[in-house]
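Standup notes
- DV: blocked on the single-chain target, sequence here:
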Amino acid sequence: MASSIVLGITGTLLIFLPEELAESLHLSPNIAIVFQVLGALYFGFAMSNWTAKHSILGGIYGRAILIGNLSHFFTGGLVILKYYSKNGSYIFLLIAMTYLLFAFLFGYLFKTHPKTA
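- DV (later): unblocked, structure below
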């Protein structure tokens, strides 16, 4: 549920405030369309996660949700961590650690079998 909230808020900001975000990051306003598409992706993941929040996840159950989230958060975390190593801004380290925490949690769910109710 936490991932759906984080992704939902981030996606909404990217969809509705792309020019403002580009300006605050000192980027070209032309990047706004990329931010909006990225926001749509995040919002779509948020809706998938929110819809699956009461489903059994783990083992073979909810495999598509787990694989999608695991690959997104793991790959994204590594990419952001690499950017941090070159840039040095601590906000990117914080974002990378958040991503990798979600990757670890989704990986844990993927490798364990759910307990019966």
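- Follow-up: Residues 13 and 34 are 13 Å apart (CA to CA).
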